[in-house]
Amino acid sequence: MLDSFYLTLLIGPTVPLPAPRPVVEALTSAQVTVSSGQQSGFQLTFGLSKKSLLQNVLLPAGYFDPTMRVILMVTVKGIPYVLMDGVITQQQLTPSNEPGQSTLTVTGEDLTRMMDLVDLTGTPMPAMPAEARVSLILSRYAMFGIVPLVIPSMLPEVPNPMEQIPSQHGTDLAYIQELAEDVGYVFYLQAGPAPGMNLAYWGPEVKVGLPQPALTVNLDSATNVESLSFSYDGFSKALYILRIQLPEDPPVAIPIPLPDIGPLNPPLGLKPIPPLRTETLDTAPNTAIQAAARGMARASQSADAISGSGQLDVLRYGRVLQARQLVSVRGVGLTYDGFYFVKSVTHNIKQGEYKQSFSLTRNAQVAFAPVVIP
C-alpha cells in the first residue's frame, strides 16, 4: 500500500536476525535520534503481560541484554530506509497493577558504543598521518559491517619518527574523535544503505549536494509540515583570529582571520550574516596547522546563526527526512525560504503513525530565488 509504512526489527548478537512475531506485536513505540556531530540513539518500548513470551522466555534468556545488536528499518512508499544499527545499552522494566500496562523499555546507541569499551592508551602509531591512523582503527570493526570513508585532511601533517612517535589516547572512539577535532573534521556512523552495513565517515562536515524535497508551510494543500519556526541569533557568530608566534627576538605575533565558508560549506543564502564579536585562538598547545584547522571548523559552526525546528508526518511528506543533508524550505517568506542543513532528526514511530521532529541551521538569510522548487 503506497499510503503506509512498514517497520522491520532485527535483534541478535553481531549479526541480528528478524525479531519473532510476539516481539514485533508487543512493540508499542520506537524512537530514533540522528544528529550531526553526535552519536545516534534509539529507544524501544514493549508492552508486557504475565504470560507473554517476552516476560517469561526472552527477557530471562538475555534477548534484550546490553550489547545485543538492534537494526531498525522502515519502508515508506516502497523505499527502505535503515534508521538505526546499534546496540542495547540499558533496559527498564515498569510493572503496573493495571492489566496490560506493564512495559519494557530498551535504550541503545549506534555501534560507536562498541568502539568505546577498551582503553588502548599507549598503542604506537609511527609515521602515520591522522587519516591512516583512523583507517587502521576502523579496520578492527569490519565484523559489524563498518565501511570506512576517510577523507584526507586538508592540512596533512606526518610526524617524523626520528623526533616523535604518536600513540593512541583512550579508547578507539575517543582517539578518532580527538584526531577529527585536531583537523576540524567530524566523525559519525551512518546506518545503511543495506541492513547490517554502516558508513564510518571521518571528514569535513559537508553542506553541499542535492537538497531533499521542500518542507512546505502555509501553502494550502501543498503544506507537508505540521509545525515550523525559525530564530536568528546575531551574536552567536564570531570572527575567529589565529595568533601565530614568530621565532623572533622579541617574539612577534601575527593575527590571521579565519574564514567561515569554503567549498564544502558555502553560504546558503544571498545575505551573509556579519560577525558581531571576535575571538582569538592561540596555537599552543597545538601546532599552527592544527590550530588553523580547529579554528576554521569553529568559525563554520558559529556561522550558523539561523536555526529552525519543526515536525512533520512522514506519509504526508512522502519520504523520510534525512539528517546531515540539505533540505529546501518554502512558504515562510523570502527571508527564511531556501536551503537549510538538517542538523538533527528524531523519528517517532507508533502503530499507524510515523512522525519526525527536526532541527535546521544555515549561515545566511534570503533565498537564492524568489520561488523554491518543491
Helix tally equals 6
- Work out the number of β strands: 21
List the domain count as a whole number.
3
Please identify the structural class as seen in this structure: mainly beta
Radius of gyration (Å): 24 Å
Helix content: 10-25%
User: What is the terminal-to-terminal distance?
Assistant: 24 Å
Sheet-strand content, in percent, reads: 35-45%
- SSE order in H/E notation? EEHEEHEEEHEHEEEEEEEEHEHEEEE
Averaging pLDDT over every residue, what do you get?
Answer: 89
Counting copies of identical and different chains, the oligomeric state is single chain
Largest sheet: 13 strands, mixed
Overall spatial form: flat
Query: Low-confidence parts lasting 5 or more residues at pLDDT below 50?
Result: none
Give a structural overview.
- The chain is built from six helices and 21 strands.
- It is mainly beta and 374 residues long.
- Strands 1, 2, 3, 4, 5, 6, 7, 11, 12, 17, 18, 19 and 20 form a 13-stranded mixed β-sheet that branches.
- Strand 6 and strand 7 (102-110) form a beta hairpin.
- The longest helix has 15 residues, at 288-302.
Write out key terms for the chains shown:
6 helices, 374 residues, 14% helix, Phage tail protein beta-alpha-beta fold, mainly beta, 21 strands, 3-stranded mixed β-sheet
Summary, kept brief:
With 374 residues, the chain is mainly beta.
List the helices and strands and how they pair.
Elements: E1 5-12, E2 17-18, H1 21-26, E3 27-35, E4 41-48, H2 53-58, E5 69-76, E6 79-94, E7 102-110, H3 130-138, E8 146-150, H4 172-182, E9 186-191, E10 198-203, E11 212-216, E12 227-232, E13 238-246, E14 252-257, E15 271-272, E16 277-282, H5 288-302, E17 306-313, H6 314-317, E18 326-330, E19 338-350, E20 353-362, E21 364-365
Parallel strand pairs: 8-10, 11-18, 13-16
Antiparallel strand pairs: 1-2, 1-5, 3-4, 3-19, 4-7, 5-6, 6-7, 9-10, 12-17, 13-14, 15-21, 17-20, 18-19, 19-20
Helix pairs in contact: 3-4
